Amino acid sequence: MGNQDTLVTLEFSAQDADPEYVDEQLRLLIDELDELDLTGIEPVTVGPPPPGTRGADVVQLGTLLIGLGGGGALLPALIGVVQDWLGRRRSCTVRMKLGDDEIELTGACDDIQQRALEEFIRRRGE
Q1: pTM assigned to the model
Q2: For this UniProt entry, which segments traverse the membrane (predicted)?
Q3: Which domains does the chain have, with CATH numbers?
């Protein structure tokens, strides 16, 4: 991802889910996000592997770093894809972080969540 990207962190969680389920669900979300014109979708790493082991950096389970491009104009589309994806799952949430701002999305599409999303998008446009 480039230096001019607007970066969004997505943290997926599911109540009482095992790591395999989380990984599987995240792959399904990535498949849907691939339809957007994003500049990047990468797993978030938490550092090097433990001493004495070989391999790449350790990946933080259920967390993605999304590149939206310079202006962040894709933020509403990203939110729409995540909401649609969450609507087809039970007991799942996605915490979306953009800079110091964050919002938690659930599969429920109620007025309170919709107003919070509109405010989140408005703040990012300022």
Answers
A1: 0.80
A2: 58-81
A3: 7-46+60-125 (3.30.70)
